Amino acid sequence: MESLRTDAAECHLVSRSVPVPAPSFRAVLDSADAPRTVWSAPDEASVVGSGAAATLTADGPERFDDIREAAQSLFASGDVHAGTEAARPRLFGGFAFHADSADGTPWADFPGARFVFPRVQVTWTGSEDPDESAAGDGRADTGAWLTVNAVGPDVSAADVESRLATERERLTSLPAPGPVDGPPGVGDRRRTTALGDWRVGVETAVNRIRSGDLRKVVLAQALEVDLDGDLSIADVLSRLGERYPECYRFLVEPEPAEDSPQTSFFGATPERLVSVRGRTVETDALAGTTGRGETPAEDEWLAQELARDEKNAHEHDLVAETVEEQLAPFAASVSAGPRRVKRLATVQHLWTPITATLDSDEHVLSLAEALHPTPAVGGLPPETALETIREIEPFDRGWYAAPVGWIDAAGYGTFAVALRSAVAREETATLFAGVGIVADSDPDREWDEVQLKYRPILDELEVDGE
Ligand SMILES: C=C(O[C@@H]1C=C(C(=O)O)C=C[C@H]1O)C(=O)O
């Protein structure tokens, strides 16, 4: 394709890319400088970012607008030779769940919003693992690009091109990674919410729903675990990619405060909040959950039970209807596919794909702001649900269940809902999981569903049988 190029009289952003033989995802991530970034989505190129050429942060209720404005001014004057669309300048990051994000462990280094324009970026347009992508005819899909970015009043194209040559040398001489490490093992576990307190919380929510103040609320828990060994995020993300190919994988690692250890927020979430490309908007209503069976027949039976179950259907339909309503003011048309079951390695969900055509050009962040939090992670009515969450949950959600993704100069982008995730720091990891509460929710069944939703991450931390 024609190279993507934007020249401006006054250049503050310079970006250069070259095609490279696909390096190993794990080797690239392991050798990346802080702050590291990972984004990998079904049907999209995977990205590892190393360092930051620019970082945008914002706090408070205006954080979506503030990031959008800062991104537009960053992208306004660019000298960009991307070579391919997937390597064009993009900002990667996300938001805190609540507008007034609290500080303190484990979220101390996470502002209300933070986006990184990577200093060095590797973009895989083919497989992330060159060893696994060899086609039957012996030729591998080796689509990958190396990009070097710089931002500032004094940056020169010559400097960026020379850095690109150096980075290319470094990339081609990366040592092959060893075998994927096993999980580190889990020692002590601390729950934010004991079963008794959970029952009281769910009953409070159910009473509020029965009294008519609330229609649905999503209550979450956190589980802090001590790790017995080192956690390799590269290995965890690589294994999550194999087990959950239909999920959105992410890693956010903000610069730590002085002398503090690095905090890493990562996960593999099945839920897309929104993607915008041109005037096409795609989103998913995902809510209503059951487990996986031991056999294909049991799996099928569970899926059918889920599809028939009235409580789950109600929980789900509130999400699908609300998403459609929230998109309506922006859209010439909104259409929802038939409700179906999405089967993942550990759980099955009710899923309605929703698409819309915009009336006029809209920035993806305007749509992300309008949709977040959907009743799949917040509730209905939204304000009462958020108050209920604040009142009942004894911990700060931080970036859990909030939008993570990317934006580009055109205002296109994709955001996922940061579920099936954990925040790791030194020898501990804190996992998060939540469930939708409606009028006939049973606290003990909801408790079991929370435990099921810890599985994707816990499976990557526990040694078999722990
Ligand atoms: C809140 C979570 O998941 C959400 C809640 C679901 C439910 O209540 O059935 C299903 C999928 C997600 O929308 C989570 O995984 O933590």
Describe this structure in words.
With 466 residues, the protein is an alpha+beta fold. It has a domain of 236 residues: Anthranilate synthase (4-Layer Sandwich), CATH 3.60.120. It has ten helices and 21 strands. It has a 21-stranded mixed β-sheet that branches. Strand 2 and strand 3 form a beta hairpin. Helix 1 runs antiparallel to helix 5. It is globular and about 65 Å long. The site of ligand ISJ has 18 residues, from strand 9, strand 13 and strand 21.
Chain-wise SSE layout:
Elements (H helix, E strand, L loop, with lengths): L12 E8 L4 H7 L4 E5 L5 E13 L4 H14 L1 E4 L8 E6 L17 E12 L19 E8 L5 H16 L13 E6 L3 H16 L5 E12 L5 H11 L4 E5 L10 E7 L2 E6 L2 E12 L4 H13 L1 H18 L3 E6 L3 E4 L3 E12 L5 H8 L7 E2 L1 H11 L10 E6 L4 E5 L3 E5 L2 E10 L5 H19 L5
Parallel strand pairs: 1-4
Antiparallel strand pairs: 1-7, 2-3, 2-10, 3-6, 5-6, 5-18, 6-7, 8-9, 9-17, 9-21, 10-11, 11-20, 12-13, 12-19, 13-16, 14-16, 15-16, 18-19, 20-21
Helix pairs in contact: 1-5, 2-8
Bound molecules: ligand ISJ.
GO biological process, one term: L-tryptophan biosynthetic process
Organism: Halobellus clavatus
Pfam families: Chorismate_bind (PF00425)
